[in-house]
C-alpha cells in the first residue's frame, strides 16, 4: 500500500467518526446499562442459576428423551433463561446493545454504499433487510 495524503485524510476522518461514535448517547447508554447490569446481585444470582441448570441439562442432553428428568431439566433451563432475559436490567442492556449495533450497521451500510452499490453487507441482523447480502457461501460451492 502506498501511503499518500489520501490515506492520511481517510485515517483522520475515520478517527473523527470513531470519536463521534464513542461520544454518542447510544454508547453512553450501552456502557451505563452494562455496568448497572453487572453490578446487580439479582442478575448475578440469575446468571449463576442459569449456569447451574444449563450444566445439569447438558450432562443428560446427549441421551435425549431416554434420560431421567429430560423434559423437566429442559423446562428448567428455559424457565431460568426466561427469568434472566426478562430481568429489567438485562433487557435494558440488550435493548441498548441492539440499538448500538443497529447504528453501527447503518454506518457500515452508508460507508459501503458511498463506495459502490455492488458491495454486499452482512449485518448479521435478520432485520437489516435493506442491505444487499452475500449468497451465504453456498454459491461458491462447485
Automatic annotation (TrEMBL):
A Pfam family of this chain: Com_YlbF
InterPro entries referenced in this protein's UniProt entry, alphabetically: Bact_com_dev_regulator (IPR052767), Com_YlbF (IPR010368), YheA/YmcA-like_dom_sf (IPR023378)
Superkingdom of source: Bacteria
Name used for this protein in its record: Transcriptional regulator
Span of the signal peptide: none
Amino acid at each position: 500500500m502506498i501511503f499518500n495524503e489520501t490515506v492520511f485524510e481517510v485515517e483522520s476522518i475515520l478517527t473523527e467518526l470513531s470519536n463521534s461514535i464513542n461520544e454518542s448517547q447510544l454508547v453512553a447508554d450501552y456502557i451505563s446499562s452494562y455496568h448497572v447490569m453487572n453490578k446487580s446481585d439479582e442478575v448475578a444470582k440469575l446468571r449463576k442459576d442459569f449456569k447451574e441448570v444449563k450444566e445439569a441439562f447438558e450432562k443428560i442432553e446427549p441421551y435425549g428423551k431416554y434420560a431421567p428428568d429430560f423434559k423437566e431439566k429442559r423446562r428448567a433451563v428455559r424457565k431460568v433463561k426466561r427469568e434472566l432475559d426478562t430481568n429489567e436490567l438485562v433487557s435494558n442492556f440488550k435493548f441498548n446493545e441492539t440499538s448500538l449495533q443497529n447504528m453501527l450497521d447503518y454506518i457500515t451500510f452508508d460507508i459501503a454504499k458511498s463506495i459502490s452499490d455492488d458491495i454486499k453487507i452482512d449485518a448479521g441482523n435478520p432485520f437489516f433487510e435493506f442491505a444487499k447480502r452475500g449468497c451465504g457461501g453456498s454459491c461458491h460451492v462447485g
